[in-house]
Structures are given as C-alpha cells and as structure tokens.
Amino acid sequence: MVSARGHSHDTGNHYIREFGRDSITGKYLWDWWADNDGGSDGDTKDTYFASHWCGHAPW
C-alpha cells in the first residue's frame, strides 16, 4: 500500500489517471491522482499524487 503523504483532501480516493508500459521490461508506470471531492465548494480540482512502476496492468 502507498502512503498518501505530502498532500491532503477532505474526501475522495486516489485513482490511476494515466499509465504507460515499458516495452523492454514489460512493466507499467501508473500515474496516481487524488480525487478531491471537495467540501462546501463542490468538486475541487484533482491533484497529482505519485507515479509507481508495477508488473501488472492497471485494470
């Protein structure tokens, strides 16, 4: 599990917004974003969280 340090949001989840695959290693680079659902102002703009290499596709 990845620790969500260095940012904050009231509600919502993290999700994979973009991903790519390295053709040599076969690993996937997952780009994780925070779904900032936002409090009293409605939906707040989502923010970048982190990127991680993984041996599995993100689906």
Outline of this structure?
With 59 residues, this protein is mostly beta strands.
Helix content: under 10%
- Strand percentage lies at 35-45%
Task: Give, in spatial order, the strands making up the sheet with the most strands.
Answer: 1-2-3
Biggest sheet: strands, sense, closure?
Answer: 3 strands, antiparallel
Structural class: mainly beta
Low-confidence runs: none
Mean pLDDT reading: 76
Report Rg.
13 Å
- Number of contiguous helices: 0
In one word, what is the shape?
A: elongated
User: SSE string, helix = H, strand = E?
Assistant: EEE
Describe the model.
There is one protein chain. By secondary structure, the chain is mainly β. The protein has a domain at 14-54. It contains no helices and three strands. A three-stranded antiparallel beta sheet has the order 1-2-3, with no helix packed on it. The two termini are 17 Å apart.
